[in-house]
Amino acid sequence: MPPSPVAELLDLLSLERLEENLFRGQSRDIGTRYVFGGQVLGQALSAAQRTVPPERQAHSLHAYFLRPGDIEAPIVYDVDRSRDGKSFSVRRVQAIQHGQPILVFAASFHEQEPGFSHQMNMPEVPPPEDLEPMRYDPELLASLPPKIQRWLAQEGPFEFRHVYPRDELKPPKRPPYQQVWFRLREPIGDDPSLHRALLAYASDFHLIGTITFPHGISYLSRSVMMASLDHALWFHRPFRTDDWLLYACDSPSAAGARGLARGLIFDRTGRLVAASAQEGLVRVRES
C-alpha cells in the first residue's frame, strides 16, 4: 500500500544528513511545472532547525527564490551557523541543485521568554465544518493538460476550505483578499519544529494567487506567467498544523509586473499564530 500524502510530506521534510551542516532532500511532483516553493521553504527550515538546540524555536524566516527547482533531482541544503548568542541563533541556508543555488534563506531562532502581548482580531468567517472543499467538473478537468489535472484533482497532505470559493478556470474580478481554512489531513506528533516546517510548506499556497483577484486572471490561464520572488514568515504563538488554521490573505499593491501579498494565520480559537508576506512576478502575455 503506498504511503499517504501526509507520510510522503513528513518523509520529504526529514532530510538526509550528509555532513554536520549539509543535508539532502528529495522532491514530490504535485502537478506544478517546477518544485513547489513551499517544499523548498519547509526543507530549508528543517535543515536549519537540525543545527539549533531544540529549546530555540524559529520566530522568522526570509527567503529569495533564485531559480526554478528540478523535480527529478535532489536538493542539497548547505547551512551556515551565522550566530549563536545568549538567546538568539541565526542560520543561513543555500538550497543547491545542479551546482547552482535555487534558494537563499535565513532564519532566526529564539528561546521562549515572557513579554507583553497583543494581536489583530481574526476575521469573522464561517467555521471550516460549514464549508465544502473545492471540486471541479470531471469532464472539464479531463480537457486540461495532465499536470494541471493532477494539481487540481489530487488529494494532497493538506485540506483546504475556501470561505469565498473562486473558480480558477473561469476567474471573476474580485477585491484582492481571501480567507482559507487549512489543516493537515492526519494527526501528527507534538514536535513544534516539525509543525513550523509544515507551516512554512503550507504558507506558499494561495498567497501569491491573491494578487490576481482584481484582474480576473488565474495562474491556470495560458496567458499568465506567475512566479514567487521571495517569501517571509513570522511565527508568533504555538500552533498545530493538524488542527484547522485560517489563512487571511490580501494584496495591497501590484505594479511593474510584480505584486505583493500578505497573510495572517489564526488558529480556530482566534489566536494569531503566524504572518507571511510574498512578492510575486505576474506577467500577462498579449493574446
Structure, described:
This protein is an alpha+beta fold and 287 residues long. It has a single domain (5-111, 130-284), classed as Beta Barrel (Porin), CATH 2.40.160.210. Helices cover 16% and strands 38% of the residues. Strands 1, 2, 3, 4, 5, 6, 7, 8, 9, 10, 11, 12 and 13 form a 13-stranded antiparallel beta sheet that branches. The longest helix is centred in the N-terminal third of the chain and has 13 residues, at 37-49. The N and C termini lie far apart (46 Å). The mean pLDDT is 92.
Topology:
Blueprint (H helix, E strand, L loop, with lengths): L4 H10 L1 E4 L2 E4 L11 H13 L6 E10 L9 E10 L3 E10 L2 E12 L26 H5 L3 H8 L4 E5 L14 E8 L7 H11 L21 E5 L1 E6 L9 E11 L2 E10 L4 E13 L3
Provide a short characterization of the protein structure.
The protein contains five helices and 13 strands.
- CATH topology: the name is Porin
CATH superfamily (homologous) name: Acyl-CoA thioesterase, double hotdog domain
Strand tally:
13
* N-C termini distance: 46 Å
How many domains, in number, for the residues? 1
Helix-strand category: alpha+beta
The biggest beta sheet is recorded as: 13 strands, antiparallel
Radius of gyration: 19 Å
Overall mean pLDDT: 92
CATH architecture: Beta Barrel
Count, helices: 5
Q: Please tell me what the overall shape is.
A: globular
What is the CATH level 1 assignment? Mainly Beta
String of helices and strands: HEEHEEEEHHEEHEEEEE
Task: Work out the strand percent.
Answer: 35-45%
- Uncertain segments are none
Helix content: 10-25%
